[in-house]
Amino acid sequence: MGYANWIYDGILYLYALSLLFYFSDFMNASRRAKRIGTGLLIFVWVLQSAFLITRFISHLELPQLTSFVYWLAFSWLLVTASLVISRFFHIEYMVFFVNVISFAVLALNFYTSSAQDRNYALWQTTRELLYIHISLILCAYAALTIGALLAAMYLFLHHRLKSKRWSKYIRRYPSLDAIERYADRSVIIGVPLLAMSLAVAATMLIAGDKAMLLLDWKVLTSFASLLAYIVYVYQRAVNNRPGQQLAKVYMFAFGMLILSVLTNSLSSFH
């Protein structure tokens, strides 16, 4: 069972990595990122298929399928549909959002149904979820903090250039295009990690019969900060807003994230 648990975790991490590359393609229309994301997604699909086959074989004598197999099959169907859409219909945004839903279903299934199906103790399940949540949220905080520094640098440099206030220090700054490009990379890494960490946190609360904590102030502000970053992504990828406006939206989203961190003392979650 321990070996199977490592494989389940491996599927989730590979799926998360695939989503990072798909998000990079979503932001910058990168063919290389799309190829890598698709390759990882195909590998995830192969592993899911193998698990489904073994599960179906082991449950042939049972009168009905367990909820674990049911939702695993549902996630597998979403992955299959996304691969078909990517190959034959080329609706790129649909592929990304379908896989976000599939990842959430897969995570929730592995760490709730699996706890019952494999007789894991509840404390062990929530502990594993906590480790994953902490690792994801710390990486997200690091990436988004770097992005906030770049956004502040962009606003400062844009103001100095617009007012034609030159100095020897200004010449040491990278160009506005370079700053914007680096900020995009921090978003490409940070936002999916933040979304996945919050999905894992929600899963942990549900698995631990603490769903009421989803209304906790810290949880709500965390989801509000994620929503603000989603607004940034939409303005960047769809509306093609100017860099100055995007930097302001980014700083607002980061301010929401800081508010979420500062509300730890008011929260019952941590």
Automatic annotation (TrEMBL):
InterPro entries: Cyt_c_assembly (IPR002541), YpjD/HemX (IPR052372). The chain crosses the membrane at residues 6-24, 36-56, 68-86, 93-111, 131-157, 187-207, 219-237, 249-269. Keywords: Membrane, Transmembrane, Transmembrane helix. GO terms for molecular function: heme binding. Residues 72-260 form the Cytochrome c assembly protein domain. One of its GO terms (cellular component) is plasma membrane. GO terms for biological process: cytochrome complex assembly. It comes from the Bacteria. This is Cytochrome c biogenesis protein CcsA. It comes from Paenibacillus soyae. The lineage of its organism: Bacteria, Bacillati, Bacillota, Bacilli, Bacillales. The gene is ccsA.
